[in-house]
Write a structure and sequence with these properties.
The protein is mainly α. It has helices at about 1-20, 35-45, 50-60, 65-75, 80-100. The longest helix is centred in the C-terminal third of the chain and has 20 residues, at about 80-100. The protein is elongated, with a radius of gyration of 27 Å. Mean pLDDT is about 80; it is low at about 100-115.
Amino acid sequence: MRATSRIYCLGVIGALVALSGCQVVAYHPPAPVTTTQIIEMSVAGRSAEEIISEIEASQTIYEMDSEDVLDLHEKGVAREVIDHMLKTEQRDLRRRYYNPHHHYPYGHYYAPHPYSYWGWCW
């Protein structure tokens, strides 16, 4: 009886230790900077560098067409800010293309290769 109770206690303690490490930390992404806010910052006289740093900190991606660009330009947004806003979509597409989430932990896995990933299997 005593051996089974010890095994049972060790099993319960092991389960509690394993489950206590399963804490989930919630990720709250930064709030995006809207085009209206960018126009307001430009009208308020903030520099292009300050507006660009806010865009970078918020990690906002802008999908803009020529009408949006003309509208921002007419409302007084600096050319550097508009250029940076246009580049955010390009950078996001490049990031998604060159940094896909691989399921194989060692980089690319060449499945049709007849030998192992690290070289010849001897």
